[in-house]
Structures are given as C-alpha cells and as structure tokens.
Amino acid sequence: MSGDTTDWRELREFKAVDLTQSYVLAWTVESGSLLIDVDLYLCPNHALYEEPRPAEKACYRPAFIDFPHCESATDSATGRQLADSVKMLQAGKIHNLKRTGEGRYEIFGHFGTVSIRAERPMVRLKDI
Q1: With contact defined as beta carbons under 8 Å apart, do 26 and 91 qualify?
Q2: pLDDT, tens digit (0-9, with 9 covering 90-100), for 28-41
C-alpha cells in the first residue's frame, strides 16, 4: 500500500467537509504535532452544520487539522523543515491534500506544497 495515493475525499477524517473551500490561517509545530489552523467548510451533511446567516455564503467553523507524531514536515519551495520555516508559510486557500503512502501526506494551496510524515490527521473543531 505504500505506493498508493489517496485523495483527501477518501479519508474518513475529512467526511462531510470540503478542504478546497477551506482556508489555512496559521501553521504551528507543537509537542511533536503539526497543527494547521483553518476556517473549515462544513458540508450540509456534517453533524455540526448550521444554516449560514444571510450575510454568509457557507458554513465555516474554526478548526485544526492535527498531524500527530509528526516526524517531519517540509516546505517544498525551500526544502526546509517546517519547524524552521513555519513562521514564513503563508495563509491561503487549500487546493488539495493527499496521502502519498503510509504516514506520508502532501497539502497544496496558495501557501505552496508541504510534505508531511506523520500519523493519520485528525480534524478538531474549536469551541465557539
């Protein structure tokens, strides 16, 4: 299975959300985990979905995408480990996330490409 590529839509962690409509706000490396602070787009079939207010176009919730036990995370543009360059990564819209092998992930967006070696990601909605 290590040679298989899996699109984020096929990963159970991202059920009922749309990453391509979500936005990265910040990157943090903390206690061995890569935390991606996001405004997460919830689809109508998500358990915590709420009808958007009249001024809103969709249901967004503040959340973290947590890559626990992160062995490495590399900014593909610079080749630097994320712990060294996390402050330089930009915020922006997510274009794609895929699993490229066992414990290997790539996330693409306006911020560039970040390659990650970690356990399966977890989506954690923040309390609002």
Answers
A1: yes
A2: 888 889 999 999 99
